[in-house]
TrEMBL record:
Xref: PANTHER family: ATP-BINDING CASSETTE SUB-FAMILY B MEMBER 10, MITOCHONDRIAL (PTHR43394:SF1), ATP-DEPENDENT PERMEASE MDL1, MITOCHONDRIAL (PTHR43394)
SUPFAM superfamilies (UniProt xref): ABC transporter transmembrane region, P-loop containing nucleoside triphosphate hydrolases
Listed GO MF terms: ABC-type oligopeptide transporter activity; ATP binding; ATP hydrolysis activity
Biological processes annotated in GO: oligopeptide export from mitochondrion
Protein name: ATP-binding cassette, subfamily B (MDR/TAP), member 10
Domain of life: Eukaryota
Transmembrane segments: 188-208, 280-308
GO cellular component, one term: mitochondrial inner membrane
């Protein structure tokens, strides 16, 4: 296993900055709309209702103007009757508007929830499909941030911000038309102010959008760090690294107390992009933006009122018309203020759409078949076929024989043919060089060698977590890359160095990945073989006992035996065992060893072996040194001719006798 990679993280101050941020496709409104495509009909109806609901009250100022004028009209015959008729109409218009407003609000909110739920599912499926090297390069916390906060931003963008911005524009046009109808001169004054407002708000709005995107990015980095540390609390506490981790987190989030006057200046030795610093400028620009819109908007109101008084005084318009006009100016001012806040949300959503599109469209270097409920939706979401999509990272793309092979049964003959390999995230260092090895079906091969020699990598390549850089790996004579990946993996059992259990029950953990019903008898049988049954039935809830997050409630030996039971339930033709380097106590080791001895019978087994007892038992021992195979044979043969093996055995013997 890549111990180096995993253990370096808590100790290296900047380890979490080494992973790449999720790239973005060009953010665009078209992308944003595409992501909400299935909700278009609902959103269109909601938009229509919104326009009707919001336009209806625009009639009221005109009706009220009539009422005002009737009130001050000395020639009116039945003044109160006329006013009452008008006021009833005003109330009806208002009620219809409110009711339609309720329907559109409900429709939009539900459409938003549908957008976000669908996107999260699609995004999760897309993440599940990515090859292992993708996860080597991107921190899980950052991906979680894309899955939660980016999708939420997109939900607001498509179901609220976009319709509100459209409404704002419609309102502006309708109000301006009504204002021109009342008084063209007065309307021209207001129109001039609106144009000035637009010219000022566009650059500030763009700046705000940029800051919002930056804020989301840095928040993703902070989340990535927090997820990594919270998932490794035992390591953090055992290294007494809490303070260091808090400091690392603070480096991304920023410390507001460092800036006595609140102003987030950039000090030379500090990172420019902390959430506080970006958030600080985002808050100031947003406040300035809204103040400007409201300030200039109300300034217009007063200027036009002033000019309006003159027009009433000159007898050009009535007092009622002036009140109606002012109401429209007010609508425009309030509408622009509201629209501007939604414009910034829309810009945020545009930025998020770029990152989401990248993840949805990313073509995995090793296509993993993941069942998708609605495949056509995937295409409509991304807006293009997979074939058209450019591969973002360049790994050795191998064109498989189409269709992929799914033989009836696997015999389990393994052959490495002159394999060379480097990890895509570290292309400068070769991990396997001219690696050729044959493991006949039903035999056991033990890989031995120094730490970092490449043994776990061999196991990873056999499961096709990565593709070889050159050469080939064949199973029963078929290149791995020509085989159906789910068929391949369903025939391989894998017990990791540090077995990964899930926060589920023992039963669910053993049955993990099994699609069929598993009877209790079968469960008990594999657990017995794995020496796990006895300790499981001692617990009050037996197979229904929860194991805690990542199996924290179990001992190392218990976790390993459950992992062996899980691998056995698959009844794999090939069993891969990456032996734990961490010492188990003698009793546990004996029980695990016994479980392994039972598990290897009748299948091809590849063991990354660390224990002398395991090594000795293997029919074929492969000595890996400096990323190459330097010798292979039985224990006795190698003891006679291979110096490296002799050294290794000497070290192991000393270790066992200690
Ligand atoms: N995901 C990865 N990305 C980049 N490099 C990796 C990755 N995993 C392992 N490596 C590197 O590949 C080399 C071989 O690692 P590997 O885990 O195969 O060694 P190993 O022989 O199994 O070691 P050990 O016995 O300590 O588990 C190491 O130099 C390691 O740093």
């Amino acid at each position: 296993m890549s111990e180096a990679a995993s253990s370096s993280a808590p100790n290296h101050p900047d380890a979490f900055n080494q992973t790449k941020a999720v790239p973005s496709e060009t953010p665009s409104l078209a992308n944003l709309l595409r992501l909400a495509k299935p909700e278009w009909p609902g959103l269109a109806i909601a938009c229509f209702l919104m326009i009707v609901a919001e336009s209806a009250p625009l009639l009221n100022p005109l009706l009220l103007a009539d009422a005002y004028d009737t009130l001050v009209d000395p020639e009116a015959v039945d003044r109160m009757q006329d006013i009452s008729r008008t006021m009833i109409t005003v109330l009806v218009v208002h009620s219809v508007g409110s009711f339609l407003g309720f329907i559109r609000q409900a429709l939009m909110s539900v459409a938003g929830e549908r957008v976000v739920a669908r996107l999260r599912n699609l995004l999760f499926v897309s993440l599940m499909k990515q090859e292992m090297s993708f996860f080597d390069e991107h921190q899980s916390g950052e991906l979680i941030s894309r899955l939660t906060s980016d999708t939420a931003v997109l939900q607001i963008g498509t179901s609220q911000a976009l319709p509100e911005v459209i409404l704002g524009m419609v309102k502006l046009v309708v109000c301006m038309a009504l204002m021109f109808w009342i008084s063209a001169y007065l309307a021209i004054v207001v129109l001039g102010c609106v144009v000035v407002l637009f010219c000022i708000s566009i650059p500030i709005g763009t700046w705000l959008g940029k800051l919002s995107r930056e804020y989301q990015n840095v928040l993703g980095t902070a989340q990535g760090h927090a997820t990594e540390v919270l998932g490794a609390m035992r390591t953090v506490q055992s290294f007494a690294a809490e303070k260091r981790e808090a400091h690392r987190y603070e480096k991304v989030v920023g410390d507001p107390d460092q800036f006595p006057l609140w102003w987030a200046t950039h000090k030379k030795d500090q990172d420019k992009t902390t959430t506080y610093r970006v958030g600080f400028f985002k808050a100031i620009v947003a406040a300035g933006f809204f103040t400007l819109i409201f300030g200039v908007g109300f300034g217009c109101l007063y200027v036009s009122l002033w000019y309006g008084f003159k027009l009433v005084n000159d007898g050009e318009i009535t007092l009622g018309e002036l009140t109606a006009f002012q109401s429209y100016v007010f609508y425009i001012g309030a509408g622009l203020g509201q629209t501007s806040s939604f414009v910034s949300k829309l810009l945020e959503a545009q930025g998020a759409s770029g990152r989401i599109m990248y993840l949805l469209n990313r073509v995995p270097a090793i296509p993993i078949p993941v069942e998708q409920k609605n495949a056509s939706l995937d295409k409509s979401q991304s807006g293009r076929d997979e074939e058209e999509t450019p591969a973002i990272i360049t790994v050795n793309h191998y064109v498989p024989t189409i269709p992929l092979l799914r033989p009836d049964a696997m015999e389990g003959n393994i052959r490495f043919e002159n394999v060379n390999f480097f990890y895509p995230s570290r292309p400068e260092s070769a991990v396997l060089v001219n690696f050729s090895l044959t493991i006949p079906a039903n035999s056991t091969a033990a890989l031995v060698g120094a730490s970092g020699a490449g043994k776990s990598t061999v196991v990873a390549l056999l499961q096709r977590f990565y593709d070889v850089s050159s050469g080939a790996i064949c199973i029963d004579g078929h290149d791995l890359r020509d085989l159906d990946l789910s068929w391949l993996r369903s025939n391989i059992g894998f017990v990791q160095q540090e077995p990964q259990l899930f926060g589920l029950t023992v039963r669910e953990n053993i049955c993990y990945g099994i699609d069929r019903e598993v009877s209790l008898e079968e469960l008990e049988e594999v657990s017995r073989k794995a020496n796990a049954h006895d300790f499981i039935v001692e617990w009050p809830q037996q197979y229904d006992t929860m194991v805690g997050e990542r199996g924290v409630k179990l001992s190392g030996g218990q976790k390993q035996r459950i992992a062996i039971a899980r691998a056995l339930l698959v009844n794999p033709r090939i069993l891969l065992l990456d032996e734990a380097t961490s010492a188990l106590d003698a009793e546990s080791e004996h029980l695990v060893q016994e479980a392994i001895d039972k598990a290897v019978v009748g299948r091809t087994v590849v063991i990354v072996a660390h224990r002398l007892s395991t090594i000795k038992r293997a029919k074929q021992i492969v000595v890996v040194d400096d990323h190459r195979i330097i010798d292979s044979g039985t224990h006795d043969e190698l003891l006679q001719r291979c110096t490296k093996y002799q050294e290794l055995i000497q070290r192991q013997s000393m270790h066992s006798s200690q």
